[in-house]
Amino acid sequence: MNKCYLASGWFSPEWLEEVENIKTVLEKHNLDYFSPKDENLCQPDDSESFQDQVFSGNIKNLHVCDWMLCNTRNKDMGSIFEAGYFHSLDKPIVYFCAGLPEGAKFNLMLAASGVAVCTSIDDLREYLSACNSAGGLFERRYGGNIE
Predict the structure, then answer these.
(1) Each residue of 51-101: pLDDT tens digit?
(2) What is the torsion angle, in degrees rounded to the nearest 10, for the CA atoms of residue 141, residue 87, residue 34 and residue 20?
(3) pTM over 0.85
(4) What's the rounded Cα separation, in Å, for the pair 85 and 48?
(5) Are 111 and 141 a contacting pair, CB within 8 Å?
(6) What span, in angstroms and rounded, lies between the C-alpha atoms of 67 and 1?
(7) Which residues contact 35 (CB under 8 A, 6 or more apart)?
(8) What is the pLDDT of residues 6-65, one digit of tens each?
């Protein structure tokens, strides 16, 4: 469980709070991570050359990181793109989908491409603790309803 790529939107106060909570869990487990929000922030009116620089920096870190934690809240398109790209690199993805209403369906393509799906901060904390005990990420496929 070396370096993690944290794919997550942060475009509202609720999203920002959630990504910060996720980072706190990673830090409490002494896990190194790359967060585009903290490293390669691009403003809507930034130049094309800066946009390209941010894109290239994120792609570079997708290659550098060993595993991904992808927050699927509100289906942020950038996070979903990063997850697809990461999967094509044949690297493990843990999905985080807190806020999934009872009985709601999780996407089949995400469920099948991930080693685990965590449905709350507590679930994430417990999964990462179990991974530490096991010596690495392990498969815990999503068992709920899919769409």
Answers:
(1) 999 999 999 999 999 999 999 988 889 999 999 999 999 999 999 998 777
(2) -40
(3) yes
(4) 22
(5) yes
(6) 7
(7) 6, 8, 19, 23
(8) 999 877 778 889 999 999 999 999 999 999 988 777 788 889 999 999 999 999 999 999
Per residue, the 3-state secondary structure of 103-140, as one string, reads CCCECHHHHHHCCEEECCHHHHHHHHHHHHHHCCCCCE
- Quick one: tokens of 29? 């487990």
Task: Label residue 130 by pLDDT band (50, 70, 90).
Answer: very high
Q: Please give the torsion angle defined by the CA atoms of residues 94, 40, 12 and 5, in that order, rounded to the nearest 10 degrees.
A: 10
User: Tokens 């509202």 — which residue?
Assistant: 12
pLDDT, position 63? 98
